[in-house]
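Lay summary. Proteins are chains of building blocks that fold into shapes, and those shapes determine what they do. In this project we predict the shape from the chain. Here is one chain we studied, written as its sequence of building blocks.
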Amino acid sequence: MSIFLTALAVGLASGAVVEKRSGVDCFGSGENWGAQRAIAQSYAAQVCQGDFVGNYQPNDIRAKCFNLSNTKMVNFDLKLRGDVDARTIASAECYDGLQKQVNQCDNGGRTTADPNDGQCATPQ
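And here is the predicted shape, written in a compact code that computers can read:
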């Protein structure tokens, strides 16, 4: 019964450094939240009240991209992984994972939230 909050991370593809902080896998380099951290928190709450809540089959993934500014976006992803049965992901569980990646990781988290330069291809 494990969920894995994962970022489809541009940073990992380019060999980004990953740091561990209080059990959270954080990017050690790359784009940072800067002044947009509070906006990212708001979007995390929004997606965990709607699109990311519900029934998941093993390896199901739900992804959303939000524009944080004219030059920065965030990718949020939620995946049920492992050899587990289908189950429901509730709002509180979703938000707990996302907010840790935003609050504890200056450059986003490898397993949930990834700030990047640019704009979403399809803004939410």
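What the prediction tells us: Residues 1-21 have pLDDT under 50 and may be disordered.
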